[in-house]
Design a protein that fits this description.
Largest sheet: 2 strands, antiparallel
Helix content: 10-25%
Strand content: 15-25%
Bound molecules: iron/sulfur cluster
Strand order of the largest sheet: 1-4
Structural class: alpha+beta
Shape: globular
Number of domains: 1
CATH architecture: 2-Layer Sandwich
CATH topology: Alpha-Beta Plaits
Radius of gyration: 11 Å
Distance between the termini: 11 Å
Length: about 70
């Protein structure tokens, strides 16, 4: 079985502080309003799992999550 980890952003919580895409630029990008969103489908390569956890820990709105699918 293939284990996939993905990052998610709760758009209702996001206030556009930008910490996710500054902390983990390989996983997040800004939309036109400066809110964070996952790049592509949010899949996290093994090499970026630490960055994903940092982004979760650094979002002041607790909008970022990192979980298996
Ligand atoms: S750090 Fe959190 S609040 Fe800031 S842009 Fe990213 S998801 Fe939004």
């Amino acid at each position: 079985m293939m284990w996939r980890m993905n990052v998610h952003v709760d758009a209702d919580r996001c206030q556009g502080h930008g910490r996710c895409y500054l902390t983990a630029p390989g996983l997040f990008e800004a939309d036109d309003l400066g809110s964070g969103r996952p790049i592509g489908d949010g899949a996290v390569p093994v090499a970026l799992q630490h960055d994903a956890r940092l982004a979760v820990a650094n979002c002041p709105e607790r909008a970022v999550s990192f979980e298996g699918t």
